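Lecture notes, structural biology module. Today: joint structure prediction for complexes of two components.
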Amino acid sequence: MNPIEQFELQRIAPYFINGVDVSFTNSALYMLLAAAGAIILTLFTTSKRALVPGRGQALAEVLYEFVANTVRQTAGKEGMRFFPFVFTLFTFILVSNLIGLVPYTFSLSSQIVVTFAFAAFVITLVVLYGLYRNGFGFLKLFVPHGVPAPVLVVLIPIEIISFLSRPVSLSVRLFANILAGHITLAVFGGFVVMLLGAGAWAALAPIPILAVVAMYALELLVNCLQAFVFAVLTCVYLNDAIHPGH
Amino acid sequence: MRTDKNESDNDNELRARLERLQAALGSKEAERRVETGGGLPVGGSFGKALSAGFTVLSEFVAAILVGALIGWQADLWLGTKPWLLVLFLGLGVAAGFYNVFRFAAPKDARGGG
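The predicted structure, tokenised, for the full assembly:
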């Protein structure tokens, strides 16, 4: 009845290179599953290219339109060159979150290493593309215009810290939401078992079951929403790289 | 009579042109808003409100953590034990509030930055 047990990494195929642990774990397995799910969702359902889309194709088209609109609205028309990246990121997180919601599975986004790797990649991309596109003009991002020079002395470090906090908040938000949700579900599930094993108290067992059902719906919402939030914020940060002067 | 008609024609033409310009300006403005809008949709359904709350919380905490981390590391390197930590913790808190302000304030009210 340990609610943390579900997040444990297990080595499926132990493998060490010079003492460095590169085993194939359940995390790696679920990454492959999520990638396979995303590929099935997008490639195979659209392979017929029907004019009147079937169920799968309609789903893929809605997903495409949705992400394309998000990118266009938050990062502008120029941001569309990052559409493949954002779409991949969004679909991968969404599919892995949805897989993670199935009982007895492993949720990828509940590992801060995974979410921080995503966030660090996004921020690195923002910095590199910003420097490549705007040269040192990218550093204008840290200098708010229309501010007197003495205030700038304080404001520039604040801007830099604020920028550095982005990957942290981006990764922690996704990780914390998923982790907290899964723990809550596990704890309430545990209540059911405890009540059933406590003699006459078993009569109360349906109450936590109802709570689990309600929270499961909420978790479904949160899991989809967090994938979306991650994608939107990626676009917002990419927008900063494209238009650093605001 | 003729000049009068001509004048009113001109007037109408001018008015029509003005309206066209107004419409063009309006659509341009809307386009600009869409292009530079950014930010999360605040408000709306329960789920959106929930995620907005989480966003504000994580932005606030993350800035403080990053500030503290920078100060702590700089102290270790420069051997100025508590002082840089104090300074950067303060800056981190300021950056946290700045993040929250940036999230909550409308784009036009920010005055750059």
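Point to remember: The first helix of chain A runs from residue 26 to 44.
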